[in-house]
Amino acid sequence: MKILTSFILIFLIFFISDEHKAHIKPDVIPVNITDIVKKENWSADDYNLLTSQTGLTHISLDILKQENINKILSVQKAYLSPVNIICKPHMLLSRTERLTDTLSPITALENGDILITSSSHVLGFRNGHCSIVIDAEKEIILEAAFIGRNSEFSTVDRFRKYSSVAVFRLKNTDSETRSKIAEFAAENLVNKPYSLLAGVFDNNSTHCSHLIWSAFNAFGYDLNSNGGKIVTPSDIAKSPLLELKQVYGLPLTFK
């Protein structure tokens, strides 16, 4: 009985201490960025201010400058607004935090982009989750979600429901290369059985970060930043081969 009580106590300590990481609100004061957004050219200071107010780095800002500058204003509103979050069991001891009355403002996506969330956690360890954008226009992603479910196509809205998300892009490559990686993933990595041991003892299965690693590794890009046999979403986020495009509910230093 004492052992059970101790286990429950440890679980509660881990659970409670971890919840403050569910969504990290940016520590900035909202400012009116309308005039800056409408400027024909942005200075380095303009980019820095826009990034601090929206969570969009220069990559996504440049995309929206060409496509829809008003989107930058709506992203700012969502980025700086308070959120309501619910934490629900996912599987076994795993839990996931999700937004209850809003969606994260993921935008300016391109084929081959990587979505990473830290919202999934087991006790005090945030294992996270990730996926690859297959068709940015239709907002189709490929992911290996959890045990008992094969890798499958889904939509970006699944990630918009998470309380935190970061968007990464392969650095120093053109859109054609990144699209080819996405095409490879769509043709070769769908309907794979889920296994936490994928790549270690089993080469016929996958899991979320192994799927991402496999797609890019097929083109000579090893995104496993620690070089081990097991790759996690955190390992991918820390890869020097990637550049950050956007964060929501995470610090701009997220890596």
Structure description:
The longest helix has 17 residues, at 2-18. The model is unreliable at 1-17 (pLDDT under 50). The strands form two sheets. This protein has a six-stranded antiparallel sheet. It has a three-stranded antiparallel sheet with strand order 1-2-4, with no helix packed on it. The N and C termini lie far apart (42 Å). With 255 residues, the chain is an alpha+beta fold. Helix 7 (175-188) crosses helix 8 (208-217). The chain has nine helices and nine strands. The chain is globular. It has a single domain, classed as endopeptidase fold (from Nostoc punctiforme) (Alpha-Beta Complex).
Characteristic terms for this protein:
255 residues, 9 strands, disordered N terminus, endopeptidase fold (from Nostoc punctiforme), 3-stranded antiparallel sheet, alpha+beta
Shape: globular
- The tally of domains stands at 1
> Helicity range of the residues?
25-40%
Look up the CATH topology: endopeptidase fold (from Nostoc punctiforme)
Q: Helix count? A: 9
Percent of residues in beta strands: 15-25%
Task: Give a count of the beta strands, DSSP E runs of length 2 or more.
Answer: 9
Mean of pLDDT: 88
Order of helices and strands: HHHHHEEEEEEEHEHHHE
Task: Evaluate the radius of gyration.
Answer: 19 Å
The span between the termini is 42 Å
- Contiguous low-pLDDT stretches (5 residues minimum) are 1-17
Main sheet, how many strands, which sense, barrel?
Answer: 6 strands, antiparallel
Structural class: alpha+beta
- Class, according to the CATH hierarchy? Alpha Beta
Give the name of the CATH architecture.
Alpha-Beta Complex
The CATH homologous superfamily is termed endopeptidase domain like (from Nostoc punctiforme)
Strand order of the main beta sheet, please?
7-6-5-3-8-9
